[in-house]
């Protein structure tokens, strides 16, 4: 059955940034529901402890190391393990790989979720400083390379196929004004995804990404919760949910996408498709010919 391809039983998938409570946690939940052994990674021990409780209903067994040690219930779904590690360091990456190799499933996948931007990273490029630039690249790009490489080295050494998915952003696909560090780092992640896909295809390792639009997470701003503002500029007229992202991750990580690599799937309600020359009602703002405007509006606009 084609739908069976989603099953991840016997496979271990690492999720970096699993403790965020939004995209990473929901990706972990979806992977557990598909039967995977999930190794949830976060540098924040408190957040890891919180997701162990949150995901208990999606797991068959639960196990962890580091400051958040606990054992959980046994049931029919996947197995959750957690490890407190900083993936921006070589030691952190080594710890993650060690734990993944010791997990009950065979190491198969990686979902790179760690990323984002801090408030000071919203600034005009004219004012941007080196610290903001370096932090943006540290948070969004470097760990994707080193953690992906570590996983791929393990897979190649074991002659195992695998799948890597990185959560990217619409800001990495098109320009990100006043967000130059984040947008440029995410654009680099896009290039990295495509390059790794080409190099690692021969080993049966697929590398894909997701261009997420505005996704409502626990840390979304108040404006994001406002129904009036929430769907502005989005053809589907709403913000995305972590589950929207997790569903695309399940497609890309599993054998459902067995012949897809180097792809970056938009999960943005269609927002990337609208050229700036069209307003939210799809009316071309650059057209002044009354005959065309009458054909669009059915009547001449004011
Ligand atoms: N939320 C959105 O609207 C949105 C839109 C587009 C793309 N994205 C992307 O989705 C991803 C997740 O975003 P989010 O808003 O859910 O993030 P988040 O901040 O809620 O979660 C990220 C998690 O990563 C952890 N983390 C950060 N640095 C780490 C490190 N070095 N080692 C280990 N753990 C670390 C944090 O502790 C946190 O729990 C990011 O890559 C972001 O760029 C988000």
Could you explain the architecture of this structure?
- The protein is α/β, with parallel strands linked by helices.
- The chain has 2 domains: 2-269, Rossmann fold (3-Layer(aba) Sandwich), CATH 3.40.50.720; 275-302, no CATH class.
- The protein contains 10 helices and 8 strands.
- The chain has helices at residues 23-33, 45-54, 90-102, 130-157, 170-173, 180-200, 222-225, 227-230, 242-253, 290-297; strands spanning 11-16, 37-42, 59-64, 78-84, 106-112, 162-169, 205-212, 264-267.
- Strands 3-4-2-1-5-6-7-8 form an 8-stranded parallel sheet, sandwiched between helices.
- The longest helix is centred in the middle third of the chain and has 28 residues, at 130-157.
- The protein is globular.
- Residues 66-75 have low confidence and may be disordered.
- Residues 16-17, 19-20, 22-24, 41-44, 47, 86-88, 113-116, 143, 167, 169, 212, 214-215, 217, 219 line the site of nicotinamide-adenine-dinucleotide.
């Amino acid at each position: 059955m084609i739908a069976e391809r989603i099953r991840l039983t016997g496979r271990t998938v690492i999720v970096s940034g699993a403790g965020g409570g939004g995209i990473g946690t929901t990706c972990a939940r979806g992977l557990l529901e598909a039967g995977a052994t999930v190794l949830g990674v976060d540098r924040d021990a408190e957040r890891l402890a919180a997701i162990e409780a949150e995901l208990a209903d999606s797991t068959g067994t639960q196990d962890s190391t580091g400051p958040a040690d606990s054992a959980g219930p046994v049931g029919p779904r996947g197995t959750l393990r957690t490890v407190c590690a900083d993936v921006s360091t070589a030691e952190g990456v080594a710890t993650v790989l060690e734990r993944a190799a010791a997990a009950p499933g065979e190491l198969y996948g990686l979902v790179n979720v760690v990323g984002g931007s801090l408030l000071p990273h919203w600034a005009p490029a004219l004012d941007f400083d080196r610290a903001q630039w370096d932090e943006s690249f540290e948070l969004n790009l470097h760990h994707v390379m080193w953690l992906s490489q570590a996983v791929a080295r393990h897979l190649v050494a074991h002659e195992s196929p695998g799948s890597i998915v990185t959560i990217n952003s619409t800001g990495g696909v098109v320009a990100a004004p006043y967000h130059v560090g984040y947008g440029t780092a995410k654009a680099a992640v896009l290039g990295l995804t495509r390059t790794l896909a080409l190099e690692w295809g021969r080993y049966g390792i697929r590398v894909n990404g997701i261009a997420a639009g505005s996704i409502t997470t626990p840390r979304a701003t108040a404006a994001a919760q406002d129904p009036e503002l929430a769907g502005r500029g989005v053809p589907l007229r709403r913000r995305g949910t972590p589950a929207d992202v997790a569903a695309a991750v399940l497609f890309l990580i599993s054998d459902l996408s067995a012949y897809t690599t180097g792809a970056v799937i938009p999960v943005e309600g269609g927002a990337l498709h609208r050229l700036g020359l069209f307003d939210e009602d799809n009316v071309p703002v650059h057209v002044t010919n009354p005959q065309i405007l009458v054909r669009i509006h059915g009547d001449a606009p004011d």
